[in-house]
Specification:
single chain, about 375 residues, alpha/beta, FAD/NAD(P)-binding domain, D-Amino Acid Oxidase, Chain A, domain 2, seven-stranded mixed β-sheet, six-stranded mixed β-sheet, 12 helices, about 35% helix, globular
C-alpha cells in the first residue's frame, strides 16, 4: 500500500513513521525548501506520549526535553511580580508529560523517517482526482503520483483541504488573537538557563523562554484587534511600550531566520475524510495553542490512524471511519477548552488579569507549593 502525505510537519512525519511501521510505502511532499526548526515550546503528553512510545521515539523525544526551573511573571517594565519554582512547575505536568520545542519533535521524527520515506521539498499538490482504487495527485514538480491513500497534513492553511473539502473560510473559526514566535540568535544575558519570563498587559502577552542547549525563543500573543496590519512588523506597534527583554526581541525580529506569525484559529471540519483523502493534524482540527495539545494530538492521531489501517486491512474507508470515531471526541474536547481559554488569555482589564493569575500566585506561596509538590509532583 502506498500513501502520499502532504506536509512534513509533526503530523505528516508522525503519520509517515507509523504507516511505514504498518508496512506502507510513503511519499511526503513539503512546500518548504528544507526542514523547518524552532517554533514554540509545548507540553507533550497524553495520547501523544502513548503514541510516541508505541512508535519507539519516546526516548529520543525525552532526550530533547527541556526543564523550566523558574517561571517569572513580570510587570510591563520588567520588574518581577511573582515566580513559580521548578518543582511546582513539574508538579503540574503529570507523570507522562514533558516540555519540548516543536522543532525538536519534528527533528526526532525526521531522523526516524528520512531513510524510509521519500521526501520532496519545495513541492506542493496542485490537483487531486479520486479513483475507485486510489487517488491520483498532480504535484508542482510536474509529476503525477498514484496512491492508495492521500493524507493532508499541511497545517492550518491546508491546500489539500481546500482542493477536496472546500475553501478554508468554510471551516476556520478565528479566536481573535495573533501569535508570533521565533528563535533568538543567542540567549539574552538577562535570561538564566532553564528559566522563562512572561509579561501580560493590555491584551498582550510576551514570553522569553530558555528551551535548552543554549537556545531561547521569543513568544508574542495578543488580541488581533490591537494590531494595525497583518505582518510581523506590527509587533513593533503593539509591544513598543514594553520593557525588559521586549526591545531586544523586537530588534532581533528584523534578522530572525524563521518567524511563525499567524492568527490563532481552529479548524472545525465536519468529516476528516472524503473517499481516499484524509486530513490529519491542524489541517483537520487545529485545537490551537490555547488548548496546548496540538503536537500531542498530531502524534497520537498518527499512531491511531496506523492502528486503524492495520485493523481494517484492505478496507481503507472502514479504517478511516473507525479512526475518526475514536479520535474526534478527544479533538473536540480540546477545541472546547481552547475556546474557553481564549476569553481569559491576555485580558485587557487589569482586574481580570489579577484574577486569572491568582491561582498561579497562590501556587508560588510556600504552603500551597509544598501541598502541590507533595501530592502531584512527577517521579524524576
Amino acid at each position: 500500500m502506498r500513501a502520499l502525505i502532504v506536509g512534513a510537519g509533526i503530523a505528516g512525519l508522525a503519520t509517515a513513521l507509523r504507516l511505514h511501521q504498518a508496512g506502507w510505502q510513503c511519499l511526503i511532499a513539503e512546500r518548504a525548501p528544507q526542514r523547518r526548526g524552532g517554533g514554540y515550546g509545548v507540553t507533550f503528553g497524553g495520547i501523544g506520549y502513548d503514541g510516541a512510545q508505541n512508535m519507539g521515539i519516546l526516548p529520543a523525544l525525552r532526550n530533547r526535553a527541556f526543564t523550566t526551573t523558574e517561571l517569572a511573571y513580570r510587570r510591563p517594565d520588567g520588574t518581577r511580580r511573582f515566580a513559580l519554582t521548578g518543582p511546582t512547575i513539574a508538579a503540574t505536568l503529570g507523570k507522562k508529560a514533558f516540555n519540548i520545542l516543536r522543532g525538536d519533535i519534528e527533528a526526532v521524527l525526521y531522523d526516524a523517517v528520512e531513510q524510509t520515506a521519500e521526501i520532496r521539498f519545495a513541492t506542493t499538490v496542485t490537483a487531486i482526482e479520486q479513483e475507485p482504487d486510489g487517488v491520483e495527485a498532480t504535484l508542482s514538480d510536474g509529476s503525477v503520483e498514484h496512491a492508495d491513500l492521500l493524507i493532508g497534513a499541511d497545517g492550518l492553511h491546508s491546500a489539500t483541504r481546500a482542493l477536496v473539502f472546500g475553501p478554508e473560510e468554510r471551516y476556520r473559526r478565528d479566536l481573535g488573537h495573533r501569535v508570533a514566535v521565533y528563535m533568538m540568535r543567542r540567549p539574552p544575558a538577562d535570561l538564566a538557563p532553564g528559566t522563562t519570563g512572561s509579561i501580560s498587559s493590555g491584551g498582550r502577552t510576551f514570553a522569553m523562554v530558555s528551551v535548552g542547549d543554549g537556545r531561547a525563543a521569543a513568544f508574542f500573543g495578543y488580541r488581533s484587534d490591537l494590531a494595525p496590519g497583518t505582518s510581523p512588523e506590527e509587533l513593533h506597534d503593539v509591544y513598543g511600550d514594553m520593557g525588559w527583554l521586549v526591545p531586544l526581541a523586537l530588534e532581533e525580529l528584523k534578522s530572525a531566520e524563521s518567524v511563525y506569525f499567524d492568527t490563532i484559529s481552529q479548524m472545525v471540519v465536519d468529516r476528516w475524510s472524503r473517499g481516499r483523502v484524509v486530513l490529519v493534524g491542524d489541517a483537520a482540527w487545529c485545537v490551537t495553542l490555547f488548548a496546548g495539545y496540538g503536537s500531542s494530538l498530531a502524534v497520537g492521531g498518527a499512531d491511531r490512524l496506523g492502528s486503524a489501517l492495520q485493523t481494517h486491512p484492505g478496507d481503507i474507508p472502514a479504517a478511516l471511519a473507525a479512526w475518526e470515531a475514536d479520535l474526534r471526541p478527544e479533538a473536540e474536547r480540546k477545541q472546547k477548552l481552547g475556546r474557553r481559554v481564549k476569553g481569559v488569555y491576555a485580558p485587557r482589564n487589569p482586574l481580570l488579569l489579577e484574577l486569572t493569575q491568582l491561582p498561579l500566585r497562590l501556587a508560588s506561596c510556600k504552603p500551597v507549593r509544598r501541598l502541590i509538590e507533595r501530592n502531584l509532583q512527577i517521579e524524576q
